[in-house]
Amino acid sequence: MIVNAPEALDMPLIRRLGASCDLTQADEEALARLIGSPAREFSPRHDLAREGDTGRHVRLVGDGWACRYKSTLEGKRQIVGFILPGDFCDLSAYLLGHMDHSISAITRIRVALITPESLDALITGHPSLANAFWRLELINASMQREWLLSLGQRTAYERIGHLLIELFSRLRAAGLVDGNSCAFPLTQNDLADATGLSPVHVNRTLRELRLQGLVELDRKRLRLPDLATLAEASGFLPNYLHADPKERHVGVYA
């Protein structure tokens, strides 16, 4: 369904970029104009794009959650990334020409439909935004390396704790947390597909984290009462998210 894009569509992206890049007022106004494009809504668990697709638009999530996934020939799914408000769905396809993975909505989701011509004009007129978008893609690559480390070397406890902090940190950068809590629509099956664990193992691990007072999940909201302790227990180091380009030290989440 095509709808008029609400003004709120631009906010998560501007907050994310502004947290790590110096945006001018002209940059922000240009982004707002760009994202004032028609938007499309997708139902939960509906595919926005499939592997091999070539699209006429670059899609930016304004509201809702989605995931990137790959499937085996037998139909087994591996989630390779989560897409949150303020994230581009297919900026890589804009550069490479086609999708090399699929994208599925987790919740009801609204995406701005941006033409490649509009994006080209923005990048040409605002080189600083071109650098900011390139930075987003580099951070995505950094997150992929961290996910690979989790799948190969971290315990189930560490994988789950690490992923929860990562998602919370990304939402916080977009201005979408309330204190130490945030929306959390993921199911245990989603977490299993993202961490390479069985749903039963995910359930057992979440129960352990709850009993330790490190995680609270209720009515699709996540609360992390003690981020520093959870980060230490999960081996979480925030440097790979590159939230602050001026920060050079590497330490646990504070």
Automatic annotation (TrEMBL):
Residues 154-228 form the HTH crp-type domain. CDD domains: CAP_ED, HTH_CRP. Gene3D superfamilies: Jelly Rolls, Winged helix-like DNA-binding domain superfamily/Winged helix DNA-binding domain. Pfam families: cNMP_binding (PF00027), HTH_Crp_2 (PF13545). InterPro entries: cNMP-bd_dom (IPR000595), cNMP-bd_dom_sf (IPR018490), Env_Response_Regulators (IPR050397), HTH_CRP (IPR012318), RmlC-like_jellyroll (IPR014710), WH-like_DNA-bd_sf (IPR036388), WH_DNA-bd_sf (IPR036390). The keyword DNA-binding applies. SUPFAM superfamilies: cAMP-binding domain-like, Winged helix' DNA-binding domain. Keywords: DNA-binding, Transcription, Transcription regulation. PANTHER family: CRP FAMILY TRANSCRIPTIONAL REGULATORY PROTEIN, DNA-BINDING TRANSCRIPTIONAL DUAL REGULATOR CRP. This is Crp/Fnr family transcriptional regulator. It comes from Sphingomonas arantia. The lineage of its organism: Bacteria, Pseudomonadati, Pseudomonadota, Alphaproteobacteria, Sphingomonadales.
